[in-house]
Amino acid sequence: MQTAKVSDTPLEFIVEYLHKAKEIADGNASVPEELRINLQKAVDIASGLDPYLEKMSSQESEPLAELFRKTMSHDWEKVYEDGKTLFKLPKECITGQVEGQVLKMLVHMSKARRILEIGMFTGYGALSMAEALPEDGELIACELEPYLKEFVQPVFDKSPHGRKINVKIGPAMDALKELAATGEQFDMVFIDADKVNYINYYKFIMDNNLLRIDGVICVDNSLFKGRVYLQDTTDEMGLALRAFNQFVTSDPRVEQVIIPLRDGLSVIRRVPHIPGPDTQNGVTFDEVFRGVQGKAVLDRLRLDKKVAYVTGGGQGIGRAFAHALGEAGAKVAIIDVDKDKAEKVAEELRLKGIQSLALTADISKPEDVQRMIDSIVSKWGAIHIACNNAGINKNSASEDTSLEEWDQTFNVNLRGTFMCCQAVGRVMLKQGYGKIINTASMASLIVPHPQKQLSYNTSKAGVVKLTQTLGTEWVERGVRVNCISPGIVDTPLIHSESLEPLVKRWLSDIPAGRLAQVTDLQAAIVYLASEASDYMTGHNLVIEGGQSLW
Ligand SMILES: C[S@@+](CC[C@H](N)C(=O)[O-])C[C@H]1O[C@@H](n2cnc3c(N)ncnc32)[C@H](O)[C@@H]1O
């Protein structure tokens, strides 16, 4: 015999009472037809909501579906009678598909990397959140019942995200104390265990800094069947949740909203600082404390609303620069002599949701340089970040270096970079703001060997002096000019058999013991393009694994 479903959420109670009222109305001939019709409408709206939310929310992964099936078909009463659990566990306390999806979204949106769950049960919420964590993310799930760890582990093992979950068995408060003692901190906490202790968990987390600033606490059952606001509530849990909600609402350290989803889901955010005067209780809430214009340091690296271009953006270092600038929020124009390569990288950026533009230009030609600057300005109205990265490298013994090789190298590496700086500099000086980042080379500092590349080395030394000169000349008018000097970068080209001895030789010259990857340079371009580096100009940022020091 199928047992009737017990109402558990405010909506389920509304549906239950509406059905009862409708039954009474149907059985009473004196009830006006209009009342019956309106009751039916209310039943339809209320009873259709949860199923609709389930249908319209993303469907769960197979391991989550398995957890749900396994939980629902398990005989929890028997497990309890057999003495395998301390308490009788109601299967209805599982976090379902819609709430699981909400938690997962919150993890994505807050970019949480470390999560704490208090009350794991059969791990539905834990796995939902773990699915949104990055590869190196971690979720610590506290659970009282040892039986549950054995129950969930086989399913966690089937999911690629299960290894992010670390289950701690025992009273949650013991786990919290242990975590606080070792200075742990979380981006997100999900409280979903014994209701009367919610307030103690919350206070402990806040008082012991277990939640980072801007971090979020989600709390399940915060409407507790509506009893938090019903006048006649007398039960311990309803009153505990009411007191909990009241406490959080008046806590100046946080802001909160209760989402009327299922039995209520509170979302509580730890605010960065207590609003008020600049000095309180001897603490100075200056820019160091609050962040410059309220922005924490990582936010000051953001490049939202900025327009950037990268020459030589079709491959290698330029491509990595373009991706990095776009990831940080900038619109990026990809410039290359090779049209197909520029278009390919622009398309890659578009696939990542980054606004991009592909342009063909040979930066050794003044008319191409001017055309590229004009095209970007006419499309996006400004240029804030210029990465003059295009360059060539030709090898020859100095006694044999032809004037043709020298001129070609200088025309691109130094004359071309100068022309780009000048053309974009005119735009930026008019704007009163700009960041120019030239690609120089470690060869501007040392003479890389054994390869012979006189014109390259000399041209790159020129790029550094160009950068220093412009960097000091224009800084007063808001334009900063810096350069990056990469060491030897790992490209497919140098993996050829003939170059193997050369690579071996280079490696023995590099303290870091490896060649540079283009990704090693990405943070530097974002830093130099951002307001975080506004006091830096004319600088040569060397990224070479220590090679120039040996
Ligand atoms: C509502 S269920 C959790 C549901 C779970 N979050 C999910 O996603 O399905 C509550 C869980 O809290 C656990 N619990 C209760 N008291 C606890 C305590 N003091 N410490 C740790 N876990 C506790 C229970 O054993 C139960 O598994």
TrEMBL record:
Species this protein is from: Chanos chanos
Listed name of the protein: D-arabinitol 2-dehydrogenase [ribulose-forming]
Xref: SUPFAM superfamilies: NAD(P)-binding Rossmann-fold domains, S-adenosyl-L-methionine-dependent methyltransferases
Entry's Gene Ontology molecular function annotations: D-arabinitol 2-dehydrogenase activity; O-methyltransferase activity
Keywords: Fatty acid biosynthesis, Fatty acid metabolism, Lipid biosynthesis, Lipid metabolism, Methyltransferase, Oxidoreductase, S-adenosyl-L-methionine, Transferase
GO biological process, one term: fatty acid biosynthetic process
E.C. numbers: 1.1.1.250
Metabolic or biological pathway: Carbohydrate metabolism; D-arabinitol metabolism; Lipid metabolism; fatty acid biosynthesis
Family: Belongs to the short-chain dehydrogenases/reductases (SDR) family. Belongs to the class I-like SAM-binding methyltransferase superfamily. Cation-dependent O-methyltransferase family.
InterPro entries the UniProt entry points to: NAD(P)-bd_dom_sf (IPR036291), SAM-dependent_MTases_sf (IPR029063), SAM_O-MeTrfase (IPR002935), SDR_fam (IPR002347)
One Pfam family recorded for the sequence: adh_short_C2
